[in-house]
Amino acid sequence: MIAKTDQTARSALNFTKMHGLGNDFVVFDGIRQRVHLTPEQIRALADRHFGIGCDQILLVEPPQSPDCDFRYRIFNADGGEVAQCGNGARCFAVFVRRAGLSDKDVIQVETQSGQMQLRILENGEVSVNMGAPRFSPEAIPFKTQEEGPEYLLEVNHDTLRLAALSMGNPHAVLRVPDVVTAPVTQLGPQIEKHPDFPQRCNVGFMEICDRSHIRLRVWERGAGETLACGSNACAAVVAGIRWGALDQAVAVDLPGGQLHIQWAGPGQAVMMTGPAQVVFDGTWPL
Ligand SMILES: N[C@H](CCC[C@H](N)C(=O)O)C(=O)O
User: Fold this and answer.
1) What is the pTM of this model?
2) Which of 21, 38, 103, 213 could lock onto 228 through a cystine, CB 3.0 to 4.6 A?
3) ipTM over 0.95
4) Which amino acids bring their CB within 6 angstroms of ligand 1?
5) E strands, 11-147, where?
C-alpha cells in the first residue's frame, strides 16, 4: 500500500487557477516542480467537463536570457504552444509575486516572440509593455501582396475588410456596427483557419463607440470565443488608430470587463493595463 502523500508527491502537479477579465488560466510553477505536458495532457486539463477547464495554460520557467527574470510559456486549450497572451501576462506577474518567486514590482519575462515588462501597480492591477505591433506580412504571418492598414479577405463568397497584424501572435480585426449581433461564432472560426493566415489567427470584432472607447468580442485561435483577449484588445486599438478612428488611449470593453490600452504610434510599444485574479489552488494528478 503506497501512502497517499507518496502518490501525491510522485504523480501530481500543483497549479493555480486564475483569470484576467474571465479569460481563464491554469498556471504551473515550472521552477519548483518539473512540468512537461503533452498536447493530449493539455487538452485533457483544459477540458471544462473532464478536466480543470481553462482557455490557456501558463508555465513559469527559469529564463534563458540573463536580463530576464522568467520564461513565460503559453499553451492554448487545443494543446498548441503560442508566443503571446496579454491577460495571461498580468496573471503571470501576480502568480510569481504570490508564489514568492519574485518580490520585484517590475518583472522582465521572455516569451517565444520576445521580451515583455510586467509592472504590478499599487491598486493590484498590472501594466504590461506588450512590445511594438508588427505589420509585415512575414511577421504576422499573413499572405498578401503588400502591407497596409486594411485588407480584403474572401470568406464564403463574401469580401471582408479587416486589419491584420502581430502582437507576437497573429490577429485579424473587423469593424462591426454592434458587437452584440456580430457573427463571432460563424465568421470567427472561418477567419481563424483561413489559408491566408498560415499559422491561423485570433479574430476581433470591434465596435467603435467614440475615439477613446470601443467594444470588442474575440474568437481566439485554439480556444474559441473568450470573455476577454488582451493581445487582441491591443491589436484592435492599433488597427483603429491606423484607420484614423481612435486616439492614443482607449478603453476597451470586453464581455468580461474593461482594459486600458495605449499606443503612441509606429515603432512604439503598446501598453495594456488591467486586473488579474486568483481563483483557487489545486493539484492535477498526472
Ligand atoms: N489564443 C491566443 C493566445 C492567448 C491570447 C489571449 N488569451 C490574450 O489574452 O492575449 C493565440 O493563439 O495567439
Assistant:
1) 0.95
2) 21
3) yes
4) 23, 55-56, 74, 76, 82, 84-88, 169, 202, 220-223, 229-231
5) 12-20, 23-29, 56-61, 70-76, 81-82, 106-111, 114-120, 126-129
